[in-house]
Amino acid sequence: MDLSAINPVLLIASLMVAATPILLAAIGELVVEKAGVLNLGVEGMMIVGAISGFAITVESGSPWLGFLASAIGGALLSLLFVVLTQVALANQVASGLALTLFGLGLSSLMGQSYVGIKPPQMGKLDIPVLTDLPVIGPILFGHDPILYLGIALTAAVWALLKYTRVGLVLRAVGENHDAAHALGYKVVRIRIMAIMFGGACAGLGGAYISLIRVPQWTEGMTAGVGWIALALVVFASWKPWRALLGAYLFGGVTVVQLNLQAAGVAIPVEYLAMSPYLITIFVLVLLSRDKSGAPASLGRIFHATH
Amino acid sequence: MKLTSLLATAALGLGLATAAVAADKTKVGFVYVGPVGDGGWTYEHDQGRKAVVAEFGDKVETVYVENVAEGPDSERVMTQMALDGADLIFTTSFGYMDPTINVAKKFPNVKFEHATGYKRADNVSTYSARFYEGRAVQGTIAGHMTKSNVVGYIGSFPIPEVIRGINSAFVHARKVNPDVQFKIVWAFTWFDPAKEADAAKVLIEQGADVILQHTDSTAPQAAAQAAGNVITFGQASDMSEYAPHPRVSSIIDDWAPYYIARTKAVMDGTWESKDTWDGIGAGMVGIGEISDAVPAEVKAEALAIKDALADGSYHAFTGPIKKQDGSDWLGEGETADDGTLAGMNFYVEGIEGDIPQ
């Protein structure tokens, strides 16, 4: 065992990278659920975002265009969910599951000709003095721009939900859609926008995997990250900063356990491998002991005539 | 019991029916653990399938199912294939071993071929390649090329096949570089690009400048490329899109000749259960071109080992080799027997850490 082989600075820097896809997807889903809609299609929207972003990046040579395309791709796919649940009033759980399965299949089809291609790389932030600082340089100032976008988005969603009228309306729709409707808010329209925002965020998260974290395209490459993001939203009690904490915790333990393995720590690998899930659930359950529950209208179908 | 007999009757009926309808068409099924586009393990199996189609044309019909989880789910897929009238089914991952045996019991007239396993039956053959021979070549290159004397190894599952590879690579790396250390990370997956990328990054952060992988995606190659001064080896497939650097060579699985031979045997009615374990000599294991990033004398040495392995004059596990605990395994000049290799569950002396149990 040689723990000195683990470099804590690089560790923190890489846990932030590992956490970003989960964070992006979780923040999007958080907004969707705050609006009272349960979209289980996160995994599907992520993988479609991953291939949309990858394909456009390869074709155009610009990772920025790729990320834009991934957000559009995810949002477009979520429109299918909109049609099913907001227009046709189908069951949200079933529609969400269908969306995931459809997304996985669609992405394989779209990705046929992109297997084994290397995408152009997005440059990392490089601020002359700051990035070269010891310790905090690599942690705070040495990442790709999308990672900062994830954090900024968390802050924005938190502020929006807490301090703005838009956030209040969104929460009202999620807590009691009949009352919100009675007050004259367009419940369906607000939910559609929330769902599309969730789709765009999931798409970004997927593209972060295919363009930065891995970076390449392979079928099924999101490998369950969407489901983890979904669970994270619940365990984070629908609070943005807790979702960030959960994502970093999950990413962190994932990276730490690999580090411990490589350093030869004598803990059975199976325990290390399950540790990210256990620790994340444990911490977030502890945090969620206060009585903040789910949005009251979560998963319920709304129709103005009911 | 009821279900079994029902299935067996159904299979029999179906078998008769298909025999009557398409007596001249042999149906061959393939069960894959990853997507055919993984660029590694499953990709090469699918190349083998395509070779079967190219060889026999109209006389054969192939079906495949991708991304089949190891375990009970695979049993369902195989049962469905057998019910659909497959005459020969290749199950191409270690974790399909017990499901293959179970399904084979229900369909005595269907032939099964299980890759990398060790359980056989009258209608179940096993086949595998001596990947550890390729690992010997990789280990030699790795031992020469590492400057930090740290070699990272991404393991999939702690099964004999993977442990053999680690031991073979380590023995040969140590032979040319007595200071070399292996850091081993178990990913517990055959295919998960994100996890593989993380594992590679962690190993690189801990000082490894050579990465060997026993997982199927090219993600570790991409991680090594991003790091810059790290070399890698293609796994299962050539992964030549990462040549000449970081990928300096590769182990290539070539299943096509075997798949063609076995399909032919089913057509001729000469198929019988057997165990096939071929290496570099028989062409089942190929060594991808060693790139110019490797110095000429290292390349020559690696190729010499490859040739010696191919013509049988050298065995990858030739004594003296001790086990990790210091006890003797192979005496001077002694070579490992296939039985020990097939069930290998110990590290050789010098490797640190324990095999997950």
Describe the structure.
Chain A is built from 13 helices and no strands. Chain A has 306 residues and is mainly alpha-helical. Chain A has one domain: ABC transporter involved in vitamin B12 uptake, BtuC (Orthogonal Bundle). The mean pLDDT of chain A is 88. With 357 residues, chain B is of the alpha/beta class. Chain B folds into 2 domains: 128 residues, 3-Layer(aba) Sandwich (Rossmann fold); 176 residues, Rossmann fold (3-Layer(aba) Sandwich), CATH 3.40.50. Chain B has 11 helices and 14 strands. In chain B, helix 5 runs parallel beside helix 6. Chain B starts with a helix and ends in a 15-residue tail after the last helix. Chains A and B meet through helix 1, helix 12 and helix 13 of A and strand 7, helix 7 and helix 8 of B.
Pair with the biggest interface: A-B, 41 and 39 residues
Helix content of chain A: over 70%
Number of helices of chain B: 11
Q: Which descriptor suits the 3D outline of chain A?
A: globular
Total DSSP E strands of chain B: 14
Number of helices of chain A: 13
The main β sheet of chain A shows up as: none
Q: Might you state the CATH topology name of chain A?
A: ABC transporter involved in vitamin B12 uptake, BtuC
Specify the CATH architecture of chain A: Orthogonal Bundle
CATH architecture tag of the largest domain in chain B: 3-Layer(aba) Sandwich
What ranges of chain B have pLDDT less than 50 throughout 5 or more consecutive residues?
A: 15-22
Any low-confidence stretches of chain A, pLDDT <50, length ≥5? Answer: none
The CA-CA distance between the termini of chain B, in Å, is 34 Å
Q: What class do helices, strands and sheet pairing of chain A give?
A: mainly alpha
Strand content of chain B: 15-25%
Shape of chain B: globular
Radius of gyration of chain A over all CA atoms, rounded: 20 Å
The main sheet of chain B comes to:
6 strands, parallel
